[in-house]
Amino acid sequence: MRAVVFFFASILGCAACGEGASPPATPAPASSEAPPEPAAPSEEPNALADALDAMFAEAEAKSAFSGSVIVVDGGKVVRERSYGLADQDAARKNAPDTIFRVASVSKQFTATAILALARDGQLAVDDPVSKFLPDYPKDNLEKDGVEVTLHHLLTHTSGLPDPRATSWFRQAAWRRAIDPQEQVKAVSSSPLVSTPGSYYAYLNYNFLLAALVVEKVSGQPFEAFLRERFFGPLGMKDTGMTLPADSAARAALGYTDGVTMSDDPSFKDRDLTLAFGSGQIYSTVRDLALWDRALAGDAVLAAAQKEALFTPNMSDYAYGWIVQKKGGVTVEWHNGALSPLGFSAFIIRVPSKDRFVAYLSNMEIEKISPFEAKVTALAVK
User: Fold this and answer.
1) 94-134 pLDDT tens trace
2) CATH says 9-15+44-379 is which class?
3) What is the CA radius of gyration of the chain?
4) How many whole angstroms separate alpha carbon 113 and alpha carbon 215?
């Protein structure tokens, strides 16, 4: 059964790494390997790219797709295409450098941050969460003698309660900026709902806590850590959490049923603080291709940490990735949706073919999700 991952959709839409908790005096460098630079699209005939282009062009003609797509095949960028409008009122077209919210695709960056710290020896994924968040009631991070670990957070097997079930969430969600600690305060008084490691339940709150651990261990704000450790060195200049004013002109507006809420006063950029650690990232398809190339080498993680990142656990969920067999071929994928804002995303890696496909859309996932199976079927051929 295929796993389905929606980011807050309902309200509007392994091997242990880094064993040993003692940090070295100086963190290990990210890598000696130079940041990868995908070649410019060749625009030569390519069966995968041609099939995807035909599919999305047909959908665009029917007003069934709006967004940007990039295709990596054999380790090279072979096609980048954009369809539809980034801003319907201004008739501004989507482009390969158009900025979209990637929603739950964000989770892999949080997971990779944890593993980068594990690589440095500053934590281990089997460390209990209470070690890093001492103000969190320890009784509510343990059940049946089992403590919640970082591994449990990254695999959605923590047993933590869902913030969406609280009255606080219904009153605060998407209405104002929310400090992550406010969300923790609202949830941490509730006990676990299941024994850690016994049950899979997709929960954005898991990754919020993981991001707070990154801040605690690194001594940096989460976005600063991501930018210094990953985005800057890899040349991902159009990826981050809080969109700079000078990039706004290239940002897509999201649409739900053809209506944008991106410029509604109720849905300002700051309100995505609700998605801290789990869905706050913005990016472009070009930047995501750079990220894929980094994961293909050792510019981000060493082999042991990459094995953990892509080792499936319950419900095929690894660390911010879903890893499955499709047509006898291993695929690594994730999707995302910011249903109130009209953004959706899908990325897939096929390691055996050195393939990567990403599409980012400014349409709601209810209309876009059928493309996931179609893209997957083409990518594994």
Assistant:
1) 999 999 999 999 999 999 999 999 999 999 999 999 999 99
2) alpha beta
3) 20
4) 10
Helix, coil or strand: residue 299: coil
As a whole number of angstroms, the distance between CA 96 and CA 67 comes to 9
Q: Distance (Å, rounded) from C-alpha 28 to C-alpha 116?
A: 9
Tell how strand 255-256 and strand 85-87 pair up.
Answer: unpaired
φ and ψ of 370, to 5 deg: -60, -20
Q: DSSP labels for 88-109?
A: TTTTEEP-TT-BEE-GGGGHHH
Q: DSSP strand E in 56-215: where?
A: 67-73, 76-83, 85-87, 92-93, 100-101, 142-143, 146-147
- Which residue type is seen at 184? V
pLDDT of residue 5: 40
Contacts of 5 (CB under 8 A, 6+ apart): 104, 202, 322, 334, 335, 336
pTM given for the model:
0.88
Residues near 101 by beta carbon (within 8 Å), at least 6 away in sequence: 254, 272, 279, 281, 282, 338, 341, 343, 345
Between the alpha carbon of residue 376 and those of residues 314, 333, 367, 369, 373, the distances in Å are 21, 9, 17, 12, 5
Give the SS3 label for residue 209. Answer: helix
3-state DSSP helix/strand/coil percent for the chain, to nearest 5?
40, 20, 45
Closest by Cα among 10, 29, 2, 35 to 290: 35
Phi, psi of 255 (to 5 degrees): -130, 135
Indicate which residues carry an active-site annotation: 104
Give the 3-state secondary structure of residue 21. Answer: coil
Confidence band of 29 (pLDDT split at 50, 70, 90): very low
How far are the Cα atoms of 44, 265, 340, 349 from residue 257, in angstroms, in the given order?
36, 19, 11, 30
* Percent of the chain scoring above 70 in pLDDT: 85
pLDDT in tens, 137-152: 999 999 999 999 999 9
Helix (H) or strand (E) holding 210, with range, is helix 204-218
Q: Give the pLDDT confidence of 60-96 residue by residue, as tens digits.
A: 999 999 999 999 999 999 999 999 999 999 999 999 9
